[in-house]
């Protein structure tokens, strides 16, 4: 049997390669990438706040929504990106390879865009699965390449804007496709369907209503106390120190036993844990407001507070509560969850639960609070 391989751009006849199809898929891919970029910047700023940045403590579910959107938009981008690349790959066979300076800039931007997009989506998938086969540290690499991706998209859109405007202004008709191929509308509908299926199959990690149909959802209340555990007490090296009867919460020259914390007025609140990996789970927490502990130690609540864990040698063993959260009565030193004493893996003897904060900043196994001057 003889096969012939098309080597010219105009040899590709499928309706999927029409610029009207490419422009529409590109538009939706651009929207998905924009959602990822903006929500990713928010998450980064919350964890590494510049001096000008402010993040409120209310509504309590805001970070849950923004980070859920971040991961859902990333999942939706995968079939969109594949469809976009399939639509434009005949351009690889265009000749001459470089026709002008603008054409060279366009090709370079596509190369950078494609590489950065694959990097962000692949490493993002590994992150939600908490699987890190690469040697670099995920957060700074993901953050840096996001800027590269955003810049390459801006350049690409600027160069292709006349084509994009023309293509979006033309209707996608329903003319019969060549035998054995999809029509333009059929290809677009298949792409939307693939993105929708990808979202529904995974979004249960953050959208409770989808949990029963999200077969590929990675985390959803798989712990006896109804909450996932990202890092166990054994992994953190605190299994013995957290159970030590001599444990004390140290703050401002004072110390409190767990029994003394339990004797203070308690607050019970329904608050979500929203993780940077995209999963979230709400629970009923009971504990002492951080503001009340500060007052009991004779300290002001109008200040940032550094929270220090029993854990050592971890990037997340120390976190900082902004003054906005310190003063919020729902920012708790939690002692119980869902009516039970905190499980050791959930932060016993006490942990921070603050509204509208990433899970990595909800420090477990707390043993000291320090006022930031």
Automatic annotation (TrEMBL):
Residue span, Oxidoreductase molybdopterin-binding domain: 245-372
InterPro entries: OxRdtase_Mopterin-bd_dom, OxRdtase_Mopterin-bd_sf
Keyword line: Membrane, Transmembrane, Transmembrane helix
Keyword Glycosyltransferase attributed: no
Annotated signal peptide: none
Record-linked CDD domains: SO_family_Moco
Pfam families the record matches: Oxidored_molyb (PF00174)
Transmembrane annotation, as ranges: 21-47, 67-89, 110-129, 141-159, 192-210
KW Transmembrane helix (keyword) present: yes
Name the record gives this protein: DMSO/TMAO reductase YedYZ molybdopterin-dependent catalytic subunit
Species of origin: Herbihabitans rhizosphaerae
């Amino acid at each position: 049997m003889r096969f012939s391989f098309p080597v010219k751009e105009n040899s590709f006849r499928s309706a999927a390669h029409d610029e009207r199809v490419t422009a529409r898929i590109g538009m939706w891919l651009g929207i998905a990438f924009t959602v990822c970029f903006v929500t990713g910047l928010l998450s980064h700023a919350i964890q590494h706040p510049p001096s000008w940045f402010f993040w409120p403590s209310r509504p309590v579910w805001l970070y849950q929504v923004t980070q859920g959107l971040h991961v859902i938009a990333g999942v939706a981008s995968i079939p969109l990106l594949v469809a976009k690349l399939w639509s434009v790959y005949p351009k690889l066979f265009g000749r001459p390879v470089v026709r002008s300076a603008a054409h060279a800039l366009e090709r370079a931007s596509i190369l950078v865009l494609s590489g950065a997009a694959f990097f962000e989506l692949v490493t993002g998938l590994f992150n939600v699965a908490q699987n890190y086969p690469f040697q670099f540290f995920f957060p700074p690499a993901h953050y840096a390449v996001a800027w590269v991706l955003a810049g390459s998209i801006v350049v690409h859109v600027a160069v292709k804007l006349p084509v994009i405007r023309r293509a979006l202004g033309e209707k996608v008709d329903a003319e019969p496709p060549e035998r054995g191929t999809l029509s333009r509308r059929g290809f677009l509908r298949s792409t939307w369907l693939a993105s929708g299926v990808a979202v529904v199959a995974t979004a249960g990690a953050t959208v409770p209503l989808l949990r029963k149909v999200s077969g590929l959802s990675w985390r959803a209340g798989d712990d006896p106390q109804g909450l996932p555990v990202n890092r166990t007490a054994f992994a953190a090296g605190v299994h013995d120190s957290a159970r030590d009867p001599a444990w004390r919460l140290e703050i401002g020259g004072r110390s409190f036993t767990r029994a003394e914390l339990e004797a203070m007025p308690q607050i019970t609140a329904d608050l979500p844990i929203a993780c940077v990996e995209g999963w979230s789970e709400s629970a009923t927490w009971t504990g002492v407001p951080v503001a009340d502990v500060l007052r009991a130690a004779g300290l002001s609540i109008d200040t940032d507070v550094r929270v220090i864990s029993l854990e050592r040698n971890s990037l997340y063993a120390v976190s900082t509560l902004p003054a906005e959260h310190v003063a919020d009565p729902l920012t708790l030193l939690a002692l119980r969850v869902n009516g039970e004493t905190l499980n050791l893996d959930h932060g016993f003897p006490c942990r921070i639960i603050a509204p509208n904060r990433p899970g990595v900043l909800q420090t477990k196994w707390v043993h000291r609070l320090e006022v930031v001057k």
